[in-house]
Amino acid sequence: MKRIVCKNYDELSRVAATYVARQIWEKPDTVLGLATGGTPIGLYANLAEMHRQNDLDFSKVVTFNLDEYYPIPKENRQSYDFFMWDNLFSHINISKENVHIPDGTAPDAELECAAYDKMLADIGGTDLQVLGIGVNGHIGFNEPADYLEFSTHKTSLTESTIAANARFFATPDEVPRHALTMGLGAIFSAKTILMLISGENKASVVKEMFSDRITPQNPASMLQLHPNVVVILDQAAAKLL
Ligand code: GLP
Questions:
Q1: What pTM does this model have?
Q2: CA separation for the pair 71, 109 (Å, rounded)
Q3: pLDDT value at residue 27
Q4: pLDDT tens column, 98-129
């Protein structure tokens, strides 16, 4: 895995945006895998700015988000659908039909997940997958476990993830207990994985992720098996490396 250590969060966001923009310039019909959480907000702000200032063109770009809470309506401000429109899609010229996010209102989660995997497989996987990491090493919502799932699936959130994500909700009780998430198959379908990690609270999981132990108890450590991963960290997150 290639590592790029940046001075701080702003630099990390700019470097990440340059990566994504270069991909779109080289291949205007890029299939982008996208992530939510606090970390990619700076990247999305930079991309929106590049669209405004330099006409970075998203008209042919196709996106697949990693995950969505379940159940959750799209109008809920905490849904990942709302997050993506609010932070990125409303500020760029992407077509609505090119945006894919697992449907948090689907009556049948299993069918929804199978259809999501099929759409992604039909298009040939992602060209570039943006990833964050949970404090417990989760990627998407693939939580630490004895085994990880290949397919997109409905999953239960761990207590530590519910506690970490409670900061976005009025009370911890409002955090949905389930989510629909890409499995390792869809994540690994990416030609390139761009992982963004910021903050001292991620330093110990980052150390584990880069250690010689590849374990489903730290899902991010599995990325060592992918041939093309670029990890962009700030100095705080890289502190223990
Ligand atoms: C959520 C998302 C993950 C994300 C993680 C870290 O749980 N499902 O995809 O990586 O949050 O978020 P943050 O960047 O806010 O630390």
A1: 0.97
A2: 9
A3: 98
A4: 999 999 999 999 999 999 999 999 999 999 99
Residue closest to 61 by CA, chosen among 33, 85, 90? 33
Q: What is the pLDDT of residue 130?
A: 98
Check the CA dihedral 13-42-46-228 and report its sign. positive
Residue 233's SS3 state is: strand
Residue 63's H or E segment, with its range, is: strand 62-65
At 9, list the tokens. Answer: 């969060």
Contact call for residues 142 and 149 (beta carbons, < 8 A):
yes
Beta strand spans in 136-190 (E): 153-156, 178-181
Kindly report the number of other CB atoms within 10 A of residue 50's CB atom: 17
* Spatial CA neighbour of 104 closest among 155, 60, 148, 33: 155
If one counts every other C-beta atom within 10 angstroms of the C-beta of residue 225, the result is: 11
Distance 88 CA to ligand 1 centre (A): 16
- Closest approach atom of ligand 1 to CA 35: 9
H-run or E-run covering 193 = strand 192-197
Query: Which residues does a 6 A CB cutoff place in the pocket of ligand 1?
Result: 35-39, 66-67, 132-134, 140-141, 161, 165
Three-state DSSP at 179 gives strand
CA 240 to chain centre: 23
Q: Let me know: does 54 contact 146? Beta carbons within 8 Å.
A: no
Report the nearest-CA residue for atom 12 of ligand 1: 37
User: Which residues share a beta bridge with 234?
Assistant: 6
